[in-house]
Design goal:
Layout (H helix, E strand, L loop, with lengths): L1 H8 L6 H18 L3 H28 L15 E6 L1 E2 L4 E5 L2 E7 L6 E2 L4 E8 L2 E4 L1
Parallel strand pairs: 4-7
Antiparallel strand pairs: 1-3, 1-6, 2-5, 3-4, 6-7
């Protein structure tokens, strides 16, 4: 029943209901093995508590501690690029970072203009526009 509720609710619960359902099902299996409802309920309760106190904490720490690879725009932040189209304080231009050409604007405190051929450092990204200095 908990697994069905998890599937209906989607990822909102963080997979907790499904794992609680597994704990309750395992407890029910123990009860069937011993042909005792009391033992099944006791085992289900113990397994559910163990999940909440031990497994859940370790599982979340493991799932949330994975470092993420920067992709797309985030991957170029901190990189050096070359201006291929003039960039002025209120007029975006273009820079080449690696093998890709990006739309770029100047950081507010970066000065007035960057001419073609000058090198710039990517400070941030705003949508698909790089903010350079």
């Amino acid at each position: 029943m908990m697994i069905v509720a998890e599937l209906l609710m989607g990822a909102v619960t963080g997979f907790d209901l499904a794992l609680m359902g597994v704990a309750v099902a395992a407890g029910g299996s123990v009860g069937l093995y011993f042909t005792s409802t009391k033992i099944g309920l006791l085992a289900a309760g113990i397994l559910a508590v163990l999940y909440v106190l031990v497994v859940r904490r370790k599982l979340r720490a493991r799932l949330l501690s994975k470092p993420t690879q920067p992709t797309n725009v985030d991957a170029v932040i901190g990189s050096i690029g070359v201006v291929v189209q003039r960039i002025a304080i209120h007029d975006a231009g273009r820079v080449k970072v690696g093998n890709e050409e990006w739309r770029a604007s100047l950081a507010p405190d970066a000065g007035e203009v960057r001419e073609i051929g000058q090198t710039v450092r990517v400070e941030a990204a705003s949508g698909v526009t790089l903010v350079v200095r």
